[in-house]
Batch of 3 targets.
Target 1
Amino acid sequence: MRLIILLLLPLTLTACLRFRVDNLKNDLLFRIPLGSTPDTWEGVVVNQVLTNVPLTLPVTGNVIALADTRQSIIKLFDRNGRLEASLGNPDFKSISGIPHYPFRFGGIGIVALTEDGDLVVQNRISSKGLEVPPGQENLYKSYSGTFSTSGAAVLPSFLVQISQKGVVKFMLGASGKNSEPFRYIESIIAGEGDKLFVYHRIAEEMRLSYFDEGELKGNIRESALPVFTSPEAKDFDITLDRILPHPEGEYVLASFSFFSKKDKRFKYRKIFRYTFGGPEDEFVKEIQDPSEILFSIRSNNEFYVWETEDQGTSIRLQVHDREGNHINNKRLPFEPPRGQWRETYTDADDNIYSIRIRAGALEVYRWI
């Protein structure tokens, strides 16, 4: 009997570890006042809802960057909500005692921050002479936080890597420094050091390009992924849900949904691993629940799967190891009212952030 108990003990411990849930607490990092003065961030309120909040806010150290495309500037705030500096529009009337570094952006799009604190700014080429199809909004005239991804018009842009004091490091195009412009960018992810990942479109194809210090190291083309020509493609309609790079650029994880061609119903989701050196895929995990979604990759090769709990009042992040084994859970409980909370996202340093709009301020929390 004692032998049986000893043999079962490791299994019991493993099961307890697998289903353990660590309840995280939110720590307020930034509280940026909303307003119309130069030292605040101007929020656009529609039907009592702030509508122009970017999906993710770039954070590094003690600085957060907020883009104001109305005035074509980027404002840098410290943790106390004080404006530290601004850069952009040379005609911007700066505040006494707060430095402004002039740079003429054509039109600010997505903004990211590198690990060393440099800004990576999507600089849209001037819209002069651009014909906008009837019924479509001119995205060049959109204000902060309006990130439409379904426009038919081409929006060519370069990425500008610029220091917080306005020193331009380089201009980045689709093939590297000083190359042809990106035609459409959906997301920009800053990795470790000067690594940068850009999910963008060339012609009609989406691809994830990997740059290091402005040099193109490789890309992964959506159309070349083997899953779309696998035997399963005969019976299933397969769609790419998410493709996420490891912060060090070693590989990416891509999540796909499989829908039956017979009844169009969701059947399962699969996660594969790819490298930038080749199209071969490595199966990692199959997910049966359509509400469970690949969320992010940690630098230690673990990855999170997002699961909504309690009708959205909390989130459970399932922790999986490199092989796809479910090893732990982290719960993010949102304080009511839930409607104040916005996007939840991570960075290359494995920090988890959430955005909240409360009492006339934009707040950024880190979960610890």
Note: The chain has a mean pLDDT of 87.
Target 2
Amino acid sequence: MNPELAAELAEDAQLKTAIRELRKLRKDSEELNRAWSETWVARQKYERDYAFMVKQLREREDRIMDELRPYLAKIEELEKQVRKLDRKIRKRHSNKGRPEAV
């Protein structure tokens, strides 16, 4: 047999073996490949939607806080007034309980 022919036949055999192995590996990994692709697509969608949702929620939070600010200011003002009046009343009551100096 011609050495060139023998080398060519060996290469053909290697090629066929490699092609068979490649097909088998692709078939065996098909399910994992599909699962990976689906997961990748889901992650991309989630990242895109999540970023959008975070932006929406921040905007909503800002709008609500803008509406809430006057109420919070009024509440704070009234709390200060209540504390001041409470101190005044307690002081008056504590002074009534003491005997007056003559």
Note: The mean pLDDT is 91.
Target 3
Amino acid sequence: MESQAEYGPDEGPAQKVSVSMPAGRVAAVKARVGARGFSAYVSAAVERQIQRDLLEESLRAKEAEIGPPTQEIQDWAAAIFREAEEQAARLEPGEEKR
């Protein structure tokens, strides 16, 4: 059996894993993508979380290097995130983000 460490994050054969989550969350995912799209949906969610974790690590490292962002930059970033959340909320289920 080959080592999992030989593969990058988006490489290698599909591997079956067992994940526990609340029944309501499982139902919500299946309602959005159907039972056949469940694995792809969860895989995409894990990919996004890894990206967020890496971003957070990068931000912490940069902050340690140059100090925290100014209040003006924090306010600007918060406004951008609010706008993105509002745009996402307006999308119809299944509609592609642009």
Note: The chain has three helices and no strands.
